[in-house]
Amino acid sequence: MLHLAAEEPQSPLLPVWPEIVIGLICFSIVFFVFYKKLLPAINKALDERREAIEGGIEKAEAAQTEAQSVLEQYKAQLAEARHEAARLRQEAQEQGAVIIQEMKAEGQRQREEIIAAG
Q: Alpha-carbon distance 26 to 54, whole Å?
């Protein structure tokens, strides 16, 4: 009994040193396994994902450049088609004016023939 009375009760706030040592050893083992096995796999996955994203961005930029080029070609073709349509419209108006002039002259000639015959 003297022996039990001589020991002071340990405070619940103070750590038990053997538990701390065992906890540190377990933590070190788990940390080492994560560091050697899991961390390289995570880094590899992140690198692959980064490369895939960068590749996707490059493809998107290339597609954007190609789309811009196609748009410029379309605009040039549209401008050329409008120019050609305006030229054809002008040509048709000129031909129409010539035909009207010829018809007026033909009508005048026929009128004069009718007057001379009658």
A: 40
